[in-house]
Amino acid sequence: MRLLLIEDDQRLSDALINIFEDNSYSVDTAYDGENGQDLAETGIHDVIILDRMLPLKDGLQVLKELRSKNIKTPVLLLTAKDTIEDKVEGLDTGADDYLIKPFSTKELLARIRALSRRQPEQLQPDILKAGSLSLDIYRCEASNRNGVIRLTYKEAQLLELFMRKKGQVISKEHILDKVWGMSSDVEMNNIEIYIHYLRKKLNPEACGIQIETIRNVGYCLKED
């Protein structure tokens, strides 16, 4: 799962990045409203954590413009403003949730988990299924009729992406942005290497799925 953190306090941002990565989240960061909005508009993130007070562009203005462009990614608004009026303003602007600074790590993670299950008009489960295969996102474990398959973090992220978009062709560029992040310097052939590892672990007969290569485009997970 990929998060976008838009927070101008460097120390807080660094602390949050460590918390998120320790809990198996990938995270992209921005330190001002303009850059944050540019990243948010890519649509590759599962949850946006947005500070209200930002340089260059206020967090509420960022949120308002995202919603006006039909960007529906769940947004958790972080702020030191704690009046009822401030909360109402944030929620009415388009925030999905509101968390007051200072906050506990447990509550922050719980709210992110709740928001990550939200998708427009549907819920995102923590256990994904395709063919005869089930994926437990948070344990980085897949299972089929033969038992449990242990996955690395990146393998689990890749499989999650394929299972959420099963039957759809996914470009290498989208995979790179979604799994490794927009600022990553990872090369395209790393994707091929990780998909090779994933295919070796996922026996098509036991799992009932195949990850097909779509030449010159990307990959597609298909159910048998």
From TrEMBL:
Q: Any keyword Phosphoprotein? A: yes
Annotated OmpR/PhoB-type domain residues: 125-223
The cross-references to PROSITE patterns, in alphabetical order and at most eight, read: OMPR_PHOB, RESPONSE_REGULATORY
Per UniProt, the keywords (alphabetical) are: DNA-binding, Phosphoprotein, Transcription, Transcription regulation, Two-component regulatory system
Gene Ontology biological process terms in this record: regulation of DNA-templated transcription
Molecular function (GO) terms for this protein are: phosphorelay response regulator activity; transcription cis-regulatory region binding
4-aspartylphosphate occurs at which residues?
Answer: D51
Tree of life domain: Bacteria
Q: Which GO terms describe its cellular component?
A: cytosol; protein-DNA complex
Coiled-coil segments:
none
> What residues are annotated to bind DNA?
125-223
Write one Pfam family the protein is assigned to: Response_reg
Which residue ranges does the record assign to the Response regulatory domain? 2-116
PANTHER family attached here? REGULATOR OF RPOS
Summarize the protein's role: May play the central regulatory role in sporulation. It may be an element of the effector pathway responsible for the activation of sporulation genes in response to nutritional stress. Spo0A may act in concert with spo0H (a sigma factor) to control the expression of some genes that are critical to the sporulation process.
Its recorded name reads: Stage 0 sporulation protein A homolog
What is the organism of origin for this protein?
Answer: Ruminiclostridium cellobioparum subsp. termitidis CT1112
